[in-house]
Amino acid sequence: MKEKLQQEFLRIFGREAQGVYFAPGRVNLIGEHTDYNGGHVFPCALTIGTYAAAAKNADHTLRFYSMNFEEKGVITADLRELKKEEAHDWANYPKGVLKVMRDAGYQVDMGMDIVYYGNIPNSSGLSSSASVEVLTAYIARELFGLAVDFVEIAKLSQKAENEFIGVNCGIMDQFSIAMGKAGHAIFLDTADLSYEYAPIALKDAKIVIASSNKKRGLGDSKYNERRSECEAALASLKTVLNIQSLGELSEEEFEKNRSVIRDIVKEKRAKHAVYENRRTIKAVAALKANDIEEFGKLMIASHESLRDDYEVTGKELDTLVSAALSQEGVIGSRMTGAGFGGCTVSIVKTGAVDAFIKNVGGIYKDKIGYAADFYVVDAGCGPYTL
Fold it and tell me: Model's pTM, two decimal places?
């Protein structure tokens, strides 16, 4: 991969790259739509992700090229006047990161030429955008010798997505990508960013991701709408409870006070946030106790809540999960990511993986009319230089 990126950089920019870099994608095993509600999440970085070859240049021009979007050619921007431009499409993500880094006082004072290549499926819910963001911040750190740690890289990348791109996402995607550790998932409390690494000990099972191949964009999905519904529910609960986030509530406390919300839709959204947070805590405890069956049951309950209370699944994801749960050797399955398309994650006994992919793929194509893609993945590490 390193040689491929170096050759492409030479072809596009007519000179040698200074370095080749990688940042992973991520999958969230459980804890969905809890990260902006002050709850817990349990993601892991993947061994698939985004690569880039990069070099500083002699002026203030940024030149971005993606091998995934060759038809868009080289996208050019002035480092000193960075603003979101519709025509710049995917390149707004690296532009946003460099803008927030400069605004925060980091000395990114020269232009760069960067060639990107990702092997994360686009619009899959495996965080290709956050991967690009974290990778760009890491490249700037390496090329300019910046004193910025990986937690700060995650925060800056999230800020770029919130303020520059306009998607009101939580911290989970950027944090899990920046802080990934091979063979481990991250049990993260998004309220205070305290975290611990938990080994993914699946015995004789594998993590299988199924991409629905339904295209979706976070910015124009109902993501921001769900967030505002939770904020409205929280505001109602705060009239009777001394809390700062839905993640502070137990199931019992929520049930006792839910009637103050006075809106059935907002009540359902808040119920998901509270119950999903508690499911995540229980799921990590189950994994630590080597009770993978209990972990699987909690995954299934998570999907049902995302379908019925949060209403972010849709026909494609529900078909994939339903098909998965009808197969031999499946321990658990759920949608992962923001929803409205994207991916499911399943834990499947090793000996059943091939049949799982064949059978679930067949059912999905029959029902939906086009194919799903499958990835058997491992938990990978955070950004590094090749």
Answer: 0.90
